[in-house]
Amino acid sequence: MRNEFLVFAFLSLGILLLGAYFFWPPLIWGLVLLAPVLGLGFYDMVQTRHTVMRNFPVFGRGRYVLEELRPKLYQYFIESDTNGRPINRIYRSVVYQRAKKVRDTTPFGTQLDLYREGYEWLNHSIAAKDAHDLVQDPRVTVGNAACRQPYSASLLNVSAMSFGSLSKNAIMALNGGAEMGGFAHNTGEGGISPYHEKHNGDLIYQFGTGYFGCRTPDGQFSPEAFAERAASPQVKMIEVKLSQGAKPGHGGILPAAKNTPEIAKIRGVKVGTSVLSPPGHKAFSTPQGLVAFIGQLRELSEGKPVGFKLCMGSRSEFMAICKAMIEADIYPDFIAVDGGEGGTGAAPPEFSNSVGMPFREGLATAYDILHGFGIKQHIKLFASGKILTGFHMFRAFALGADACYSARAMMLALGCIQALECNKNNCPTGVATQRPELVQGLVVSDKKVRVANFQQETIKNFVELLGAAGLEHPGQITRHHIYRRISMHEVRRYSDLYPEMPEGCLRDEHMIPADWQMDWKMARADRF
């Protein structure tokens, strides 16, 4: 730690000088050994590129020494995932390289086993397009006919991560990167903090069951407080969080010890108290209530795009929401679909491992139901679930996405080393901690550039994949483009694994596919 190093530096110098003066003069030669160590430590404290070295002078260099010993030590002991496979560390390496704008090509072919079960790929076209002839920053307009302030969104944006779970410096770096790169920054459900606003990056204002930033003293939704926050020109879209991939169906608690005066003011709660986020919303209790609430938020925000986020659970409940939309003729401008395997938030292992529909099934289900009811044209789909590369984006578009969120990769771009100390407040890189001595190691001016670099390079690679597939824009991507190895001897297209529902078939009881009929019958607009 920085403070401990300073104590060590001054104490060791004092002992050395006093010992040489009073006891044994040759001790002064110890400065020959001590001076380089102290000089290196003070350099580590003032440099701005490496957070671990800033927070842990001299000792933090051990991480970079291990990196130089790859692959035998660093990759095996530190980077291997729980299954011992190299996939996660390869993606981490790609994010780091793109964030730093260093060479991200690899020698000697693929680093993955192409014959392992679950391997996925897209087939290129002989009539490939030159990526330079395609739109370099493709965007999607979010806002249906009822929206008066549509937003032109990037295809890759910062996913929801609240101030409180992330440090103030991490929030400022994410928003600064969003401003530099022209993409959006989702606030997370913790409310809009001054750190979200400092760099003037586009915001997607999210709130959940705690209504932080737009709540009454007793925890109800406050239309007046919401209208005040939504009026900010920096807020481009509104997102109601129904559930998240890390812990779908589970509320959260802000412990009294973490409820500082600053956080209490931002969230609109009483300082020094434990604050409960209930599992469900109080502002509505039925699909009809949710749809009416969306209409209310659109009016309170003066026509800004309004949507909701969920980890897909019961198919019948999502169908019920769609039936309520059709009944009221009110449609959200967008829906964000999170995967049960996603999420950076701390959660009980039972919820993070065993609750919620996985990302691919969830996204495909959302698209198919909207398409089946014939209402997809009103609603854009945002995909959130371990989006780290251009291929991950391409795969999400094949399943029906119109744009993507990324949380994990944006944290890696900030310098996260996945130390897995997020829930202990001990993050060594200053990303997921509120400890001032660790937060100060994350230099906003450097890390915001890395966030912008990563987003820009990933979009660039996504466009190159479009060209390689012979396509000109993301809307041409279909489930026919992605292949998955089922076994050593069997390969299936996504169009076979996730067959697309015929458009409008859920409007006619006689056209409903057999395996969807029970869900359709259970779905009622007046109850979940």
* Distance linking N and C termini: 51 Å
Major beta sheet, specifics?
8 strands, parallel
Please report the total strand number as a whole number. 15
Structural shape: globular
Biggest sheet, spatial arrangement of strands: 4-13-12-11-10-7-6-5
Task: Give an overview of the whole structure.
The chain is an alpha/beta fold. The chain has two domains: 2-76, no CATH class; 133-474 and 501-507, Aldolase class I (TIM Barrel). The chain has helices at residues 2-22, 31-46, 51-55, 61-68, 74-79, 87-100, 168-181, 194-197, 223-230, 261-267, 287-300, 315-328, 349-354, 359-372, 390-398, 408-414, 436-439, 444-468, 494-497, 517-522; strands spanning 120-122, 139-142, 151-154, 156-158, 185-186, 203-207, 235-241, 252-254, 275-277, 306-311, 334-338, 380-384, 403-406, 482-487, 490-493. The strands form four sheets. The chain has an eight-stranded parallel β-sheet with strand order 4-13-12-11-10-7-6-5. The chain has a three-stranded antiparallel β-sheet with strand order 1-14-15. The longest helix has 25 residues, at 444-468. The protein is globular. The termini are far apart. Mean pLDDT is 87; it is low at 69-86.
What's this, in brief?
This protein is of the alpha/beta class. The protein folds into 2 domains: 75 residues, no CATH class; 349 residues, Alpha-Beta Barrel (TIM Barrel), CATH 3.20.20.70. The protein contains 20 helices and 15 strands.
Helix-strand blueprint:
Elements: H1 2-22, H2 31-46, H3 51-55, H4 61-68, H5 74-79, H6 87-100, E1 120-122, E2 139-142, E3 151-154, E4 156-158, H7 168-181, E5 185-186, H8 194-197, E6 203-207, H9 223-230, E7 235-241, E8 252-254, H10 261-267, E9 275-277, H11 287-300, E10 306-311, H12 315-328, E11 334-338, H13 349-354, H14 359-372, E12 380-384, H15 390-398, E13 403-406, H16 408-414, H17 436-439, H18 444-468, E14 482-487, E15 490-493, H19 494-497, H20 517-522
Helix pairs in contact: 1-2, 6-16, 6-18, 7-18, 11-12, 12-14, 15-18, 16-18
